[in-house]
């Protein structure tokens, strides 16, 4: 019985590994050719000569950033640009079907976006909005975004936590956000047992002020390695990830008061919105220019420069060049400025990172500031 099963298995593997016959290959090619022909006929009949000319001009003259402002994924846009470089400009609408990843549905959707969007600024705004949704996990509902009046960012270090709470200006008001709470707290001095780490995190959660939403940075990834130095770094990353997970859960529980409706199928609980968001790593460093390669450098200087703005020195708002961007800036109280200046260099850096994490979240997600989005995505040269 066992020999028969082994024999059948060998035969099955032999069939699977054998190349397609000439007849089979021909059938596959005929099916593919028939599909392209039917899709091509559909495209030919769908558009007028003027529309065809417009579509071809946009595709052949555009670069990757131009194409991404239309309804096309980044993967398809890159494949299209690569195909154009190797094969030259599209001469017919159906030529795009020769590009890998393009089928009838995706082409029609893409072509319609090329014809419908007439205003470049409108396209750019939609593109920035699409980009901003990829900066955090989970995505934020627009109703929730409009109702957020305060935000708390929690920055997790190796052995420390720091948080910064911002009160946001009213919609349309040209006033800075106000820093109301800014604190650093030592969590651990060494590698702790998980039960001890839970107690430390719960105590830290008790210290963190309330806000309409909370933001943390995505935890570092952990990669397997046999090198002693990498193993030590791996342990550090694991502990940071544990702290981030515990703090995220503790903060989320602040608004989830009724757990009676939670079932084994992970149904949604009574609160319609989540209040804890995780931001992609290195976005604050990229926005405020304290990233060298993949390593952060001190962010203290950036915060000190923020403290030197006129509304942090004088109670009266005078004429300032940054009035139009004042909404994106921060007002510090004298007490918090004094606390920051008296802190140790390492604590000042952690406090700075907590504040800049909050500001990045506010500018990218809550304010959807175009210049900020352009800066972190490398599109600042295209913002007029």
From TrEMBL:
Biological processes, Gene Ontology terms: transcription elongation by mitochondrial RNA polymerase
Cellular-component GO terms for this entry: mitochondrial nucleoid
One term of GO molecular function: DNA polymerase processivity factor activity
Entry-linked PANTHER family: TRANSCRIPTION ELONGATION FACTOR, MITOCHONDRIAL
Name of the protein in question: Uncharacterized protein
């Amino acid at each position: 019985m066992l020999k028969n099963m082994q024999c059948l298995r060998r035969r099955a593997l032999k069939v699977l590994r054998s190349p397609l016959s000439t007849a089979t290959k021909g059938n596959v090619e005929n099916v593919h050719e028939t599909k392209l022909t039917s899709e091509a006929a559909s495209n030919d009949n769908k558009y007028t000569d003027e529309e065809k000319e417009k579509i071809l001009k946009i595709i052949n003259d555009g670069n990757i950033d131009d194409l991404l402002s239309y309804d096309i994924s980044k993967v398809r846009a890159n494949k299209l640009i690569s195909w154009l470089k190797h094969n030259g400009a599209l001469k017919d609408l159906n030529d795009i079907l020769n590009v890998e990843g393009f089928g009838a549905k995706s082409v029609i959707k893409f072509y319609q976006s090329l014809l419908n969007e007439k205003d470049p600024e409108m396209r750019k705004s939609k593109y920035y909005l699409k980009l901003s949704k990829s900066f955090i996990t989970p995505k934020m509902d627009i109703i929730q975004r409009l109702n957020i009046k305060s935000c708390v960012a929690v920055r997790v270090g190796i052995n420390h936590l720091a948080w910064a709470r911002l009160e946001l200006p009213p919609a349309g008001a040209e006033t800075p956000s106000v820093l109301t709470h800014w604190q650093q707290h030592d969590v651990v001095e060494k590698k702790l047992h998980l039960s001890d780490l839970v107690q430390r995190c719960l105590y830290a959660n008790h210290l963190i002020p309330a806000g309409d939403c909370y933001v943390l940075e995505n935890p570092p990834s952990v990669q397997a390695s046999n090198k002693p130095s990498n193993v030590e770094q791996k342990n550090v990353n694991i502990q940071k990830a544990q702290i981030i997970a515990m703090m995220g859960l503790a903060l989320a529980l602040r608004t989830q008061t009724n757990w009676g409706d939670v079932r084994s199928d992970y149904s949604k609980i009574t609160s319609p919105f989540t209040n804890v968001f995780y931001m992609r790593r290195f976005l604050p460093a990229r926005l405020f220019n304290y990233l060298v390669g993949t390593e952060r450098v001190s962010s203290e200087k950036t915060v000190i420069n923020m403290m030197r703005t006129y509304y942090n020195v004088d109670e009266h708002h005078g004429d300032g060049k940054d009035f139009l961007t004042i909404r994106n800036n921060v007002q510090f109280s004298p007490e918090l400025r004094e606390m920051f200046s008296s802190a140790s260099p390492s604590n000042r850096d952690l406090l700075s990172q907590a504040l800049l994490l909050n500001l990045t979240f506010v500018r990218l997600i809550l304010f959807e500031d175009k210049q900020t989005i352009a800066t972190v995505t490398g599109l600042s040269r295209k913002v007029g």
